[in-house]
Amino acid sequence: MANRSLIVVESPSKARTINRYLGRDYLVLACNGHIKDLPSHELGVDITNDFKATYVLLPEKKKIIKNIKEKAQTAPAILIATDPDREGEAIAWHLATELNGKSGKIKRVLFTEITPAGIKQGIENLRGVDMNLVDAQQARRIIDRIVGFKVSQFLWTVLYGGLSAGRVQSVALRLVCERHEEIINFQSREYWTLEVELKTMNGEVFNAQLYQVKGKKPNIANEEEVRKIQETLKNALFRVASIERKEVRKKPYPPFITSTLQQEAAFRLKLSPARTMRIAQTLYEGVDIGEGAPTGLITYMRTDSTRISNLAIQSSRKFISNQFGSNYLPAKPAVYRQKKKTVQGAHEAIRPTNPALSPDLLKDKTGKDELKLYRLIWQRFIACQMAPMVLDQTTITVSTSSTVEADSDYLFRTVGSVMKFDGFRKIYPAPKEKDEPVIPKKLLEGEELEKLAFKPEQHFTKPPSYFTESSLIKELDALGIGRPSTFAEIVSRIYKREYVEKEKGKLIPTETGLTVNRILTNNLPDIFNVGFTAKMEEELDEIETGKQNYLEVLNDFYQPFHTSMEKVRERRKEIKSSLTQQTEEVCDQCGSPMVIKWNRKGQKFLACSAFPGCKYAKSLETEKEEKLELLDKPCPQCGSQLQVKTGRYGRYVGCRNYPKCKYTEPLTTGVTCPNPGCDGEIVERKSKKNKTFYGCSRYPKCNYVSWYMPVLYHCLECGNYFVEERISKKGNSYYICPHCKTRYNSLQSNNSKNS
Question: I need a labelling partner for 455 at 20 to 30 A (CA). Which of 64, 593, 693, 746 fits?
Fold first, then answer.
């Protein structure tokens, strides 16, 4: 057994899967990711010596490398099978240098899928370490280290310590902040649409919307204008001007690449990008599906290529024909164009390694999330080789005129579609189809229609939506920022730095995030912008393909960067001063105006503007306390006023004389508990996941709970003494009686009830 060839991979699970297929002739060991990196507490790059990087062996990897070295001494061949991308190539380079790469017995092997065929293909195509890939990874790492190290230090001097900046991370933050500012500053504009309800000679009823006025798209600004149109058309004749029927074919989507997988997983499965990539890594490295050892279920998941191997296409076509019939199989296999020039041609799209292995065969054999993601990947891949969906689309144009012969100045239109053939949607259904307009089945051109009613509707223009994780990745990908291996990390990093928070799926910049973005974009606009970052990504790709020289790219980057940093260093006092906020409060000691500043912990405080002459400062907590809700009720212990406070378990009522008086009580809603025989009140509480709910004050004797806030209101239908407040998807409040389910849009009048 001493003469076994050694294969080094990144993860233990990947090692187990490969071991299963190769047997006793090979020893497969895992290095657990990167074994070297730049030092954590210093720059680690000698800028004056051709950007020479100092890599140090990670402390936690010393025992692992020692073991690999011992096994490598007697191995006739050493195959480094780290992931087939830049990061994997850099790891392979570091491993080769540690294992005496000049010996000639070290080779690089690529496994784009962990299957017998994929492993065989990799071993039959051994090569050396690709230094173009290594240089591209090094250039990225060095540039990111220089930007992060230098700019972060600058932020510490003007704001507070511990802040972080990054070449790509900060541009992603900029996109989030700019979208936030756009939404905040958005001025809504009123407009109206006008529909007419029409009846055919056969008694069929349908709606058509005004789409043309005197040859132009209608622009109805207010209610007065829409009323004028209705008055003009009050006695008009409505006729079918034209009926256009056509067949619409919708082609299937391409197979997944990294960015589209993360987008769809976020949208359909509610998985974060980081979670998606962790699950995909598991599916790639191997899952135990009851065959005695792990099985690789998908191809490599960090890719921007939509290429599919001929073998995979043949396998999928066979499955489609057998499962759905020949009418679901196009005459020729679908081939998807690469949108980017720099796509790695050796990579494939993300696909199942065995298309015949349907998700239904894996039930109870994988984790819940693993099965969900595999199903999504499998469905998308099978669908991409299926026939298009076919729709029968009908467009009805309705004219109006005062007489039969008169030309129409107002045209109405309705468009509806009926599925003729589901095609790829058979296996990859749309998340949610919109309700199609009703289209009359028997209708003739020139037919006169009866006007039943006008249906004017008021609208307001809406601001752009906040970014979600999915839409941010889509935007980064479209702008050429980041690469398949970095999208999830970019999103995770802006969370980790507390620059962005997620609220109901929306990415909202924090105050710190907005401040950091303002500092960077105002003072280093040439570095933290989309154009510069996208151009840098292109240059890194060109290093990978050998079109650009590694050192030339670093020099071209560093000279303007260094000049920009020198300029901001000279202005750091001015920049720091600009971040203070003026207040109307005056200093208790000298009478000078007080300003708001940031302390070293990232918290705001009030300080005297005469500093350093006057060093008076105080917390902002006193201002926060004034904004707390005060109750018209004295403390039963000391007589002081009670107020609503917030603790680790949510809001509660406490004495304002704390800490001298420590009286507290639950925050009651004023609604008695509805459970029979209980004399408790419904109070506000917090769950373990910090979610507000409402329960009985007599808990645990009474177990009444509800997610909805009760409000005292006499239900008009059943007489129940309270209703529950709900929030619609648009953020508006409405109320439901928990007993009879009657709905109230508001509690102001009886006319607001909707059953």
Answer: 746
